[in-house]
Amino acid sequence: xxxxxxxxxxxxxxVRSIMLRRESPDKSALENFxxxxxxxxxxxxxxxxxxxxxxxxxxxxxxxxxxxxxATKLAAEFYKKxxxxxxxxxxxxxxxxxxxxxxxxxxxxxxxxxxxxxxGEQLDKLMEVLALTPANRVLxxxxxVGRITExxxxxTGAKITGVDFAEGVVDRANKRTAMKRDRxxxxxCDMNELNFPSNSFDTIIAIDTxxxxxxxxxxVGAMKNIIGDAGQMGVxxxxxxxxxxxxxxxxxxxxxxxxxxxxxxxxYRTWCFTENEYEIWRKEKKIAEELKADxxxxxxxxxxxxxxxxxxxxxxxxxxxxxxRHLYHIKARCPAIHGK
Length: 340
Ligand SMILES: C[S@@+](CC[C@H](N)C(=O)[O-])C[C@H]1O[C@@H](n2cnc3c(N)ncnc32)[C@H](O)[C@@H]1O
Known about the structure:
Blueprint: H1 6-20, H2 27-38, H3 46-54, E1 58-61, E2 64-67, H4 69-96, H5 98-108, H6 120-130, E3 137-141, H7 147-156, E4 159-164, H8 167-176, E5 184-188, E6 203-207, H9 216-227, E7 232-240, H10 256-263, E8 267-272, H11 274-290, H12 292-298, H13 301-319, E9 323-331
Parallel strand pairs: 3-4, 3-6, 4-5, 6-7
Antiparallel strand pairs: 1-2, 7-9, 8-9
Helix pairs in contact: 1-2, 1-4, 5-11, 9-10, 11-13, 12-13
The structure holds S-adenosylmethionine (SAM).
């Protein structure tokens, strides 16, 4: 692969990400994206605009930037590498920190080394609606460190395969559960390239992972194919809207995920966990503050600061009424019933 500077990689990721959202990649949108996405890692892109145009990767027309086909593929690779290694590093550090374990216990009521907003109450509901037994073959999409996957299998006896694109955590999860190989396994897989055969699993779980796919319609279509005609899915999905968006978009039937389900002609029931999510973010902020000294002596202050910063941001959005959370239970064969 040809060499690219960090600035060129960031700019390619920026243009592709904005195009995937079907928004216009003009200079100001790119600058905003850069600040938000790369945060402290953002480098100066000034020369990258020129060099990428000189290489034919970037085009500029009517104030908008676009990518050549080759540059689009390269941008996808750079994005995946950055995201998977970012998640990997964060989650491996989370597994190693005793303070993070205590943090999870206090925030979620159960320590499963969560990298999400799922707590004990939500997991109980998930198990209740999926009614898993040892006969089930389950796929857990974006399983991270796999502690939730393991917990669900321990509780129900279901055979679960956890998949994630972060290689380090998948390796760790496999090593940790070596004695449970008859019902638990983990493998590296990109949710943008789900090619498990039709009917290979009867249940799919996705806990706070579907925000990260390139094309939600495509991924939901692939998930539908995997569970075949008689399968089910259990998905936790939080919707965040822009300041001027209609608050109706927070309804369970109006989220981006619900639209993808409609597009794939899939029926579902939902349970609202919005209040529960608010409570979790309030606790995150408070507990991160209370456990500062533990994180500091543990050597994982970055985890504490990361969580506190995220909680502060989410609490602002919540104050503005821009967040909702739902559990979706999708049944391939079920007529449409939209629950609470
Ligand atoms: C917010 S974390 C949730 C992890 C876990 N489900 C939990 O509840 O703790 C999102 C997970 O999705 C994974 N992920 C993100 N994009 C992915 C992709 N394209 N393919 C596979 N996994 C992906 C991340 O590595 C991470 O483990």
